[in-house]
Amino acid sequence: MSETLSPAIRDPRTVTLEVPEAWFRNAQDGNQHQAFYSTLLAALAEMNVLIEPVWLPRGAERAPRNVSSDRMLISFHSHGEAGNLLRCKESYIPPFYTMDRMGYSCFSELALFPDRFYDEISRQDEDESKAFLADLGRELRRSNLSKYSQPPRCGDRIADAYVFVPLQMTNDSVTHGTWLEIRAALDCIVAAASARGLKTVIKRHPRCKDRGISRALDLLDQNPNVIISEKSIYDLIPNAEVVVGANSGVLFESLMQDRPVISFASSDFGIAVQQVNSYEELSAAIAHPDPPSPAWRQKFLFWYLCQYCVRSDSVFQVRHKIQSFRRSEKLRRRRYGIHRFKSAHLFVYSIVDRIKKRLF
Q1: Which pLDDT score, from 0 to 100, does residue 11 have?
Q2: Residue 270 in contact with residue 263, Cβ under 8 Å?
């Protein structure tokens, strides 16, 4: 027997909204997520839509979100095929959030189809971009602000010239976009940097507990050309010759500090860095860096933060993003019958993926 839908669910004005209640309780950034959702609700209220809330468990990033063609879903921290849905996630620096059709980082439309955005980026005003980023970069340094809490800045400079390598969580979903194995990449980076007469400064992710990374860092720490540091990223980024990594958010923060970046992974800032997908390319890039020009990087960052992202405190920006999405004729709408969003999928994928993260 087919399910009888209530008038509200049949109403094409209905927007299904995933509610990340588990994220709201996070001691580190729960307040930031609550602020974004307050803004999101205010924007939807101004649009006079009906809201169908769906509670979202952690670990359901890749669960399918199949929605009917005559309504939309606003999802949180998810990735998958494009459709009649927007996928929200906190960006690399507060208070910015991404709202992408396909997901975040290496899963996003920006990462997978960057050519769709080149024209918009190239049209950004060079002087305006440069001024905006200079002010924001200075404020980030002054406040020592990063996605993860940083130790107080000490101001001590590393005497030798160096390559900076920020590591990330090995079980982070975005490692799906990594093209090189991290421990082999570290060996390659150290060898290439040493050949240039540079030290390699490595900062471990503050939440990383991976035993393989511990063993690798213990071995590397015996190399006189390697420094394992726990300093603030703002003590390490500004004086680095180049910053090298996969798709860690610290690479984006390095771009914000006007540093050239070499990346061996897919990401939504990939078109602003020098990307390499082999150990040979990685070694050659460190020997002779050839990143995008500073002017292009600045245009990209300005566009990314001011047009691709929204501020968590701007009802106007969030409403405009949703309205532009709904009006877009480029939506690739999949043809489903009108039905309730199957929230059971979220819980199944959540359980499976959380077990995987614990075991592997």
Answers
A1: 60
A2: yes
Q: Model-level pTM?
A: 0.88
CB 52, CB 17: distance < 8 Å: yes
Long-range Cβ contact pairs of 206-209 (< 8 A, separation 24 or more) = 206/148, 206/149, 207/148, 207/169, 208/167, 208/168, 208/169, 208/170
Q: Which domains does the chain carry?
A: 7-95+312-359 (3.40.50), 145-292 (3.40.50.2000)
Note the pLDDT of residue 167: 98
Encoded tokens for 321? 């993003």
Q: Running DSSP on this structure, what letter comes out for residue 106?
A: G
Query: Cα–Cα distance between 323 and 140 in angstroms, integer?
Result: 31
- Which two three-digit tokens encode residue 286? 């460190």
Per-residue pLDDT tens digits for 166-203: 999 999 999 999 999 999 999 999 999 999 999 999 99
Instruction: Count CB-CB contacts under 10 A for residue 140.
Output: 19
CA atoms within 13 A on the CB side of 166: 27
Residue ranges in the chain assigned as alpha helix (H): 7-10, 21-24, 30-46, 109-112, 118-122, 126-143, 182-195, 211-220, 233-236, 249-256, 279-287, 294-303, 315-327, 344-359
pLDDT, tens digit, 9 for 90 and up, residues 237-287: 999 999 999 999 999 999 999 999 999 999 999 999 999 999 999 999 999
| DSSP-based three-state secondary structure for 3 | coil
Average pLDDT, stretch 86-97?
Answer: 96
Closest alpha carbon to 203 in 257, 244, 172:
244
Cβ contact 251:269 at 8 Å: yes
Tell me which amino acid residue 293 is. S
Which of 137, 195, 190 shows the shortest CA–CA distance to 163?
Answer: 190
Residue 272 and residue 255 in contact, taking contact as beta carbons nearer than 8 Å: yes
* Residues 214, 210: Cα–Cα separation, whole Å: 6
Paired tokens of 266? 């897919």
